[in-house]
Structures are given as structure tokens and as C-alpha cells.
Design brief:
single chain; 380 residues; alpha/beta; Aspartate Aminotransferase, domain 1; Aspartate Aminotransferase, domain 2; 2 domains; seven-stranded mixed β-sheet; three-stranded antiparallel β-sheet; EC 2.8.1.7; cysteine desulfurase activity; Aminotrans_V_dom
Length: 380
């Protein structure tokens, strides 16, 4: 069978229009956006236009967007930057055990610096309840960081409700929206968030670029030092071609969001229906009601994750065991461990399928049938 890419949650192919925009900027606009001559002004115009496009996509102000090298840097800048800038108000931070490693490791770093971290447990569908956050909130809490949609199981968190809870508290609210952006309607004003992280390569943009929304008035230390680029929050000459490509990807994502969300949701349902019709033993990890449309995490009892992935790859199907940041190690998913416990069979037999650009209904049917056959063979 033809190769089928079902790992869009790890990274997505660059949209042809994005590649064209990047090539155009690379070959025609080589000035430094900080230079005052005409070459610099041409570059600055592209940078300003991109910042405006990105800001409008989440109902933010132009001067609330800081371009970064991706979601990891955005998460680090938000968490470490806010923590260090607000030491006088406390050293308590709240996060969850199912965050992306960019958040988990940033919080662990701060823990080693003397900050106190409360690690919230999810329920067995991967949801962090508002009540759990409320019970952990203290007068000296300075930051709450809860992801918008989980990258491994797709569960969407009650971000607006958590934001409302924190509206009259000193704690800043950060959400990693890397996996949700482009498929979920995000309005930072309605969500009551102070900081929000996004990465371009999840929405058919280039790798190596992202942004951090920083609400006006948020007290945050810069991540790098040097020039005065990116509102004095991130020194260094901007990656102009990638930023221009990012803006193009954002424009396409906004124009096609409803259509894509519905289509990916159908792909997910069709995949499940094929598995059901093949009468194999499986269970879905995560919420189906509160979920991203493109992420499907499935447990196949009686199988081994490594054997499943190898057999899928040999059949031309690209899937994963969870976060791409741990690819190659096949370590138990920290998300599934948090949801089901370290002794659960699910942490050793679960596969993530994620849908995106150029996937077709026919591909999904073929992939699901092949997956069922592999699972049946291994379950014997």
C-alpha cells in the first residue's frame, strides 16, 4: 500500500502556499527589520504584517505578540519569564502532570531554583477539573499553566472556566495551545488567559518558528538579551522568511478551520468504525466529547507499542506512541501514566493516530483495516 502519514500531531507538511511565500521572502527581502534604510523597512513591513495577522487570529493586540523559535521557547519564556519576574509575590506555580515536556521540564527547572510546583492529576479521560485547580490555588500562587488540548490523547481542557476562576487572582494564566491552534476558535479575551503559546509547524507552517501571546501589563522577564527585537522580550534578528510563512499558514488555517475540523472529526469516526467492524479488541484513550478533532489515541490490549509501531511502519503507516519529543525511546507515556497509573497495560499498548493535510477517507479506511490486521495478529 502507499505510505500514509498519520502523525500530524508530531509535525505537519508545509502547505504549498506557505513554501511559496517563504521562497518569495528569502529571494526578495534580505534586509534586517531593525535597519532604517529601505531594505530594512521592506523587511519591517513584512514582519509587521505577520504580527498583525497572528494577533487578529486570537483577538489580541499587535504589541502582545512575540515571535519565538517555536512552542518550546514560547512555553519556556512564559513560565520561566513570569516566575522570575514575580518572585516578590510568591513562588508557587500550578501545572498538570499531562503537559508537554516543554512545560514539565521548565517547571522542574524552576523547582530546582526553589519554586514550589503543584502537579495536578487528570481524570481517566485526561481532563483537569476546575475544582482541582481551585483547591490548589493559594495566595502566593503566581502562575497557573494548563495546556489547551493534549498532544497525546487530544483531550481539551476547560480553559475558559479556569481563566474565569483566576480573573480576580494575582496568578497569571498560561496555556500551551500548540496542538489546538488552527482547529479551535481561540479568543484570548474570552478565555481570560495572560499568556498563550503556538508553533507554526503544527498548522502546515515551517519548523523553527512560533509565538507567545503576552497580555499587556503582564510582568515577565525577557528570555534572551542583546538587541531590542520582539518588544524587548526576545533579542536577536527575526527569522523573517519563516515568520512570513507562519502568517500565511495562519491565514489558511483561519479560512479553512471549520471545514478541517469537521473533516478530521469524520476521519476519526471512520477509523473507529472500521476497527469496530473488524471486531478487534481496542479502547479509546481520552475524551471523545471534549477532544481535538485530529487526535486519536487507541489502546490495543495484548499488543506491545514497539511491535505495533514497527509493523505499522512496515505497512507504510506513520503513527506514534505519543509526543514526538520522546520518539525513539518508546518510554511509557507520562500522559497515560497520569491518567491510568504506572501499572496499567494501556501505557504499553497505546498508539496515537493524528490526521491532517492531504489525508483522504480512502486512506483512513485502508490504514484502519491494516491496523486492525496487525493488532489481530499481535493479539494472537
Amino acid at each position: 500500500m502507499n505510505k500514509i502519514y498519520l502523525d500530524h500531531a508530531a509535525t505537519s507538511p508545509v502547505h504549498p502556499k506557505v513554501a511559496a511565500k517563504m521562497t518569495e521572502v528569502l529571494t526578495s527581502t534580505y534586509g534586517n527589520p531593525s535597519s532604517i534604510h529601505s531594505f530594512g523597512r521592506d523587511a519591517r513591513r513584512i514582519l509587521d504584517e505577520a504580527r498583525t495577522v497572528v494577533a487578529r487570529s486570537i483577538n489580541a493586540q499587535y504589541n502582545e505578540i512575540v515571535f519565538t523559535s517555536g512552542g518550546t521557547e514560547a512555553d519556556n519564556l512564559a513560565i520561566i519569564g513570569v516566575a522570575r519576574a514575580n518572585l516578590a509575590n510568591g513562588k508557587h506555580i500550578i501545572t498538570s502532570k499531562i503537559e508537554h515536556h516543554a512545560v514539565l521540564h521548565a517547571c522542574e527547572f524552576l523547582e530546582n531554583e526553589g519554586f514550589e510546583i503543584t502537579w495536578l492529576e487528570p481524570d481517566d479521560t485526561g481532563i483537569i477539573s476546575v475544582d482541582t485547580v481551585k483547591k490548589s490555588l493559594r495566595d502566593d500562587t503566581i502562575l497557573v499553566t494548563i495546556m489547551y488540548g493534549n498532544n497525546e490523547v487530544g483531550t481539551v481542557q476547560p480553559i475558559k472556566e479556569i481563566g474565569e476562576l483566576l480573573a480576580n487572582h494575582q496568578a497569571y494564566f498560561h496555556t500551551d495551545a500548540v496542538q489546538a491552534y488552527g482547529l479551535e476558535t481561540i479568543d484570548v479575551t474570552e478565555l481570560y488567559v495572560d499568556l498563550l503559546s503556538v508553533s507554526a509547524h503544527k498548522i502546515n507552517g515551517p519548523k523553527g518558528v512560533g509565538f507567545l501571546f503576552i497580555k499587556t501589563g503582564t510582568k515577565i522577564n525577557p528570555g534572551t538579551f542583546g538587541g531590542e527585537q520582539e518588544l524587548k522580550k526576545r533579542a536577536g534578528t527575526e527569522n523573517l522568511a519563516s515568520i512570513a510563512g507562519f502568517a500565511e499558514a495562519v491565514t489558511i488555517a483561519k479560512e479553512t478551520m471549520d471545514e478541517k475540523s469537521q473533516f478530521f472529526g469524520k476521519l476519526k469516526k471512520d477509523f473507529i468504525q472500521v476497527l469496530e467492524s473488524e471486531k478487534i479488541d481496542f479502547a479509546i484513550n481520552g475524551s471523545m466529547e471534549h477532544a481535538l478533532p485530529h487526535v486519536l489515541n487507541i489502546s490495543f490490549p495484548g499488543t506491545d507499542v514497539e511491535a505495533m509501531l514497527v509493523n505499522l511502519d512496515m505497512a507504510g503507516i506513520a503513527a506514534s506512541s505519543g509526543s514526538a519529543c520522546t520518539a525513539g525511546s518508546i518510554e511509557p507515556s507520562h500522559v497515560l501514566v497520569a491518567m491510568f497509573g504506572g501499572d496499567s497495560e494501556r501505557i504499553r499498548n497505546s498508539i496515537r493516530f493524528s490526521f491532517g493535510l492531504d489525508n483522504t477517507l480512502e486512506e483512513i479506511t485502508d490504514a484502519a483495516k491494516e491496523t486492525a490486521e496487525i493488532a489481530r495478529r499481535l493479539q494472537k
